[in-house]
User: Fold these one by one.
Assistant:
Number 1:
Amino acid sequence: MHLDYQPITLNLETPFRIAHGTSLVRENVLVRIRAAGLEGLGEAAPVRQHHETQAGVMDYLAGLELPGDPFLLEEVMASLPPGSQAAKAAIDMALHDLQGKMLGVPLYRLWGLNPARAPETSFTLGLGPVAEVEAKARAAAERFSILKLKLDADEAGCLALVRAVRAAVDSRLVADANCAWTVDQALRLIPALADLGLEWIEQPLAEEDLEGLRKLHPESPLPIFADEPVRTARDIPRLAGCVDGVNIKVMKAGGLREAQRMIAVARAHDLQVMLGCMMETSVGITAAAHLAPLVDWADLDGNLTVTNDPFIGVLVEKGKLILPDGPGLGVRPRPAPAGTEDSGAKT
Amino acid sequence: MHLDYQPITLNLETPFRIAHGTSLVRENVLVRIRAAGLEGLGEAAPVRQHHETQAGVMDYLAGLELPGDPFLLEEVMASLPPGSQAAKAAIDMALHDLQGKMLGVPLYRLWGLNPARAPETSFTLGLGPVAEVEAKARAAAERFSILKLKLDADEAGCLALVRAVRAAVDSRLVADANCAWTVDQALRLIPALADLGLEWIEQPLAEEDLEGLRKLHPESPLPIFADEPVRTARDIPRLAGCVDGVNIKVMKAGGLREAQRMIAVARAHDLQVMLGCMMETSVGITAAAHLAPLVDWADLDGNLTVTNDPFIGVLVEKGKLILPDGPGLGVRPRPAPAGTEDSGAKT
């Protein structure tokens, strides 16, 4: 199999602020694997908290030899050297895309899933001044029925923000604290957020504070999801009894196959499953979306604020994920908007 | 989809004695599902310890409607009423067989697996007088490199049997105690069996004695596998820390898909995986064998002592599992032996 890759800079519609910092652009890597005259697409979105970078992904991919064919996926993935999980995810996606293209079926069908079972995706609103988030919420409420608010350590600020958004829109609301709170803060904030109608809280405490989660979990009136401590299937057993669910991200898992294993492990521990993402083009988001029929919650909005996404794949209609029915990922190049190139259509 | 089923009585080459009793025949059920002009095959081997019977399987299947198509497997399985796990396994197998036949690929390929990675299968020798087991061991050693001995509560008898077999053959030896021992017996027997070169022990203690396993496990010089307590993925987390591995059986799991989930859960808990079986035709054994590239140990000998197996599928050559390369399960009707019918070939 022949592997190619190229860097891609994603421009974001709005600067995206989270507890860890601010992003204006994201630097990802597109992967193409050719086999049997077909091309499989994959994408690596480096996870900065895991010290991954675009350059690191490209270093990992440089000179990599992929043995066998796309149907030896398990073996090909096992043959990869340790290193970038995002790069591995891109390879796994491209191999799955090739499998589907060689067999002429979309991935969800290859996996025995009904695309109509995919849950609605939430849409995430970055941290910001109340008026700004409120305005974004009003706009997003037109297109999504579930909005995810990012919250930080400012307790009064969190409550003011949620009250304002709650008053502004009828949407279902959920929140992600990105490790910002102490146990005491969480014990004060979560009941107040429950009173305001929030449905769940993601990662209220520090990544490694399982002890804190064990205290918080039985007291919390809202379901708690773990995010930062969840990378691969081996991370899940120790979270059982600490949280109600886990947020699984293909980029951290190192591929769709490991993500499937993670879903199985979460279910065996009676955990709810959310499918999350990074800032990605429609390649990465569509790949994850093919798994959505297996999960309870989808947070697959990472392509929606990218202004230069070169691809079209999964679509969102009133929050509903509409999976493409083409073979493999079903992703295709995005046609250039009328007037942006000398295409002869300029009339 | 159209579902058909028929009872089948398997005749066994030798009466098969285990701690729970003796078997001369086994009464299974063959399932056929038709869709898109093709037929998928499945088999239900009722698990008597779970109070399953051939009649119970047929009652479960009677009048069952299967919605959708074989590629909606997840949904079809979720739509089945509670009840016979063996019947569900047969349906799941037949749907997988149909998927593979519709796409023209063997199951292992659909699952991204390399059939060359399947471990050798062990061959099981039933309980019996020492001389009889020793003779069976000599015969089996010609065709298998790993022999599994059934052991019971008679400590001196166990040791005499293992010593005799050890002296008679060069094969690798493993043993299954089928819940027969107390913790104290196991603590005496396992070191002695280790000295005789056994490689692992399956289910030394009573099915529910996890407390006992927790005591035995750190003291045991041999890896311990759980069998009886392992039915579906949810049974596995509580076994972590009690044993070194689990024996997964498709008939107890209720299908290949659940078996795959179980393998993922076992791996997340750092458990070794063995793939076991019931007495089955080549339909059920071949279905399980397609999963073998994912596991450490295969104990897929349930069709080898059936004298009237109507099918040919996975073959065994010197213990090595040779998966068929036909689409789906790759199972086909066994040609009648020359001379048994008026075929015109009688010359």
Number 2:
Amino acid sequence: MIRVGIFGATGYAGYELLRWLQRHPQARVVFTTSESSAGKTLADVIPGPLDAPLIAPDDAPLGDVDVVFLALPHGVAAQMARRARGAGVRVIDFSADFRLATPEAYRRWYGHEHPAPELLPAPYGLPELYRALLRDAPLIANPGCYPTGALLGVAPLLMAGALTDPLIIIDAKSGVSGAGRVPKQNTHFVEVNESLAPYSIGQVHRHVGEMMQEAHRIARGVTPEIVFTPQLLPVSRGILSTIYLRVPETWSETQARAVYTAQYAGEPFVRVLPAGQLATLAHTTGTNVCAISVTLARPGLLIVISSEDNMVKGAAGQAIQNMNVMFGLAETLGLL
Amino acid sequence: MIRVGIFGATGYAGYELLRWLQRHPQARVVFTTSESSAGKTLADVIPGPLDAPLIAPDDAPLGDVDVVFLALPHGVAAQMARRARGAGVRVIDFSADFRLATPEAYRRWYGHEHPAPELLPAPYGLPELYRALLRDAPLIANPGCYPTGALLGVAPLLMAGALTDPLIIIDAKSGVSGAGRVPKQNTHFVEVNESLAPYSIGQVHRHVGEMMQEAHRIARGVTPEIVFTPQLLPVSRGILSTIYLRVPETWSETQARAVYTAQYAGEPFVRVLPAGQLATLAHTTGTNVCAISVTLARPGLLIVISSEDNMVKGAAGQAIQNMNVMFGLAETLGLL
Amino acid sequence: MIRVGIFGATGYAGYELLRWLQRHPQARVVFTTSESSAGKTLADVIPGPLDAPLIAPDDAPLGDVDVVFLALPHGVAAQMARRARGAGVRVIDFSADFRLATPEAYRRWYGHEHPAPELLPAPYGLPELYRALLRDAPLIANPGCYPTGALLGVAPLLMAGALTDPLIIIDAKSGVSGAGRVPKQNTHFVEVNESLAPYSIGQVHRHVGEMMQEAHRIARGVTPEIVFTPQLLPVSRGILSTIYLRVPETWSETQARAVYTAQYAGEPFVRVLPAGQLATLAHTTGTNVCAISVTLARPGLLIVISSEDNMVKGAAGQAIQNMNVMFGLAETLGLL
Amino acid sequence: MIRVGIFGATGYAGYELLRWLQRHPQARVVFTTSESSAGKTLADVIPGPLDAPLIAPDDAPLGDVDVVFLALPHGVAAQMARRARGAGVRVIDFSADFRLATPEAYRRWYGHEHPAPELLPAPYGLPELYRALLRDAPLIANPGCYPTGALLGVAPLLMAGALTDPLIIIDAKSGVSGAGRVPKQNTHFVEVNESLAPYSIGQVHRHVGEMMQEAHRIARGVTPEIVFTPQLLPVSRGILSTIYLRVPETWSETQARAVYTAQYAGEPFVRVLPAGQLATLAHTTGTNVCAISVTLARPGLLIVISSEDNMVKGAAGQAIQNMNVMFGLAETLGLL
């Protein structure tokens, strides 16, 4: 039985994590923390199905757990990771703090010094690409919600060296839980409802750094260049990424799809849809699955659509998948 | 041409007011204020169709206008009303500051002293009930969003002295714009979406004071007692109030409906639905109409359903209707 | 391992049932039927996470299963129940066919003769009220979605003989999945979205028959009279029922709540909320729980709010709970 | 006063048209037809604010009107257009029947012979591009909802000959009203809500034919090639099109935006947003405006985002704008 601590249980990702862990047959949640609601219980704070006592982060009994999940703001997470590693506890971090491989990249995208550079680099927790690096890892950087779907959507082509033009356009639409639980003007119901709002488009969203880093790592042939258009969608959860890529003019749709089915054969959490089906949010809501459709728009232009639940495969579910790999358990345990 | 000033143009009600006034053939908006965004324009602050320069409330040229609309927090509104009245400008106040007739009632429901008691009492701006009192009034208290639909829904029976039991149950559901534009936890998209959340139920919501005051004023026979169940609905605008009342056991549904059609004959903004139709939000969205259906649930128990757009008949539209009455214009001007 | 057949897997309730059964450690789904899509697979028909071959109902191998769930239209369900019982297979029926105890009541509410009167009466599958009758039952009538939440909300008071007036007002709001998957005008997205639509109010909705029957069965003292206001809510799932009841004028809220906590002590799927919390849809979405809040509106008038997920406690989850009871398993198996 | 007939008043576009025409100071609606609801009134059929008698199309008094709007299915519309033209009545057609210039193009995209080829070609009713052709036109083809926003979004660059690569990617998201009022599985609330569903992607959607025809007509330099990704969005109205185009590597964002502001200077219904603002649905909901933002994603790649209300600028509003031009009225009459 793996003993687990959750830091940041009152955010959307932490709450979702607790929900899934309660069904996990080999994990037991020992503590749940909240900076602002310590002393209360989860049911006091959130009108939902879960309950658990909330303790202050500083009071967390690190000696009683095997692994901690950090659902904390970036910057704060790295400091807690250092503390946990100092206590010999493994770490799965939801924040961006360990996703970029170098302190320089971190400074460039996050605008300040890395708070725990001695822990860099950490393996990037996308099991479908880096499974071998995650086994027994002391610290795993859980990928960003957008990069998860985007990278699973482009990886097979990159690894096949099939791009004929470096430009990859990712037109992504995310549910509002991705923006966090702290109320802001742009997450007010009336502002989101009945609208669709692009933001940070081009190459400025912080997830571009993470996507470019990983895309470069796996690409053969041309060095990919990513243009990213995030958009806030009036739904609670889910990310649909429509990805435009250039492939050889001679490729058929069947040929392109075969690259995906070959790459993901045997993967329990990637589902390549058959010809004639397009990925929708409904394909993956509430699951740890990334569903991918492959369509040839016209000779040489491929449209790959990737669907994921941003709270599951994009956050809590993938974190548990990483925990399963880290501890040598069956990868699907607690996730079906 | 009536010269108009709007205080609080960046809230939902103020913004809606500006939208309607731009189509009003006899009104011209001279200034729009914003406490927090003075110096910017409306289009800088809100991604919508409107634009106008925003000035600080203190800089408002009261000498240039005939009437001001106050879409301000309660407490603040009364102070601005005093200033405007001091300058000889008429006032239509969206806040609760002038809805209760006495400083004592205000203290009881709002918990502090009334900031401008010398202006009390002001006529209650529900033209269908108090039209004569609104003509040439220097100050009108625009009714609350919930009380508008609720009072129009119960008034005919109260005025007819038809209640056989004092208890009136009002089960009301409101769109989120009613909670204002300042982001709070309970207006976060993810908290509202796919939920329905009752709050302040029983006799504690501040609108109960206003509803009881007006119900008592118009009732014949028994003194009504209101129990009120407000609920936050995952829509942007609209209030549907389902009202349960006891009437004589001998009454037919036709007889009950006739009380309503008689009361509201000739009213341009109340629509009593024919037998077989139930009021829905869709009946009134985007209009200044209150739609009312009357159903006999069983002998002696009537279900009246009242629908209004909380931003129009429940706020900005009714304010313009009041302005039209105040200045002796056709009541429907700019509202069709 | 219980061998299960599902009739009607492409409707919302059947689909939800399959989702939960796939996680049930003691159940194995042997077949899934669809009248209109036989020969296809579930993933061909519905863009969601599940897949299973769909066979014609007539081809269902009844000899291979221990129990069948009937997620079929009323009328059709009773005929299939007869066939299953003839083959010695147990039945849990989602339709209304076995909820009313007599053919006369069925004729009155459903307008035609009962198709299998020899199977009446069947136990009413609300385990919190009738657990003892469900053990080893050959046929269980799974309750309607509205009656589940309504009856759990009123039962403690009725059993305590606490009503001082027979009238019970149930103002209920349901998500759209309750209206079924066949597209109709009133379930079109644009008609539902941003609206709230009452329908069949008073004492005409068919669920009134079922609620009255069960309320009469358990009530002590006055014979309850139910007035029911169903409303279509712009959410996919969930029912919130706001219930108004008269209790002795001397009762405190604490006293009233104690009746509920006593009644439901030890119930795994009923959660009585503490003072100060009101039940919302978010309390129960995705769970088999019914959450109940108890508020004294004023002396003698109680507001009980009951929240359930209409697809889980109101349909598929309760059916599995019934299966667990029927077969002597732990009642929570597969439902946490 | 222009005398107007509306064919197809119970569809979303026809209903919206009637709403706007009731405010138009120079138009009077003489009749409204409905194939399926003739003999009833609009308020009988649709729970909304409007009412009007519905007559059978065959009973429409063509002699009493100056212009008819056809909100009818394609194929049916062309036949009615022939009848109206035979009676000397002008026609503004919402269907696709007169948007393609030749019978051959129509056959290719719609799969059957054109029902009234003698009326081809008709001017394409996008006033911002073809104003001069619309004056006094006897028949105008009102553009499709998607092509309106897409063409306004690409036209300035095409007319400037600025494309450096023929490929234009249009990633478009539409509210559900665009799919019509007849209920289908893919417009069922539960299927649309909390999802996002691409359909007919690549070069197969019928609007591609219309977009390509018009893009070719106005382009200088390279012949554009359009790839189109329509997606069904869980909102009632609005289309947001994110458009990716290649421009010279030396262009600045300011330079690109200047092409748009120059092209649309003086246009009352196109709003080019200033630097730093991105177009959202909220910019245009309920208005006849198309809002456009221009962002340089990286050297040589432009992201143009175009927002429109598909029911107004994408249908009824543009039709009235066309009527105003056709009859020599001020173009904004009834549309502000």
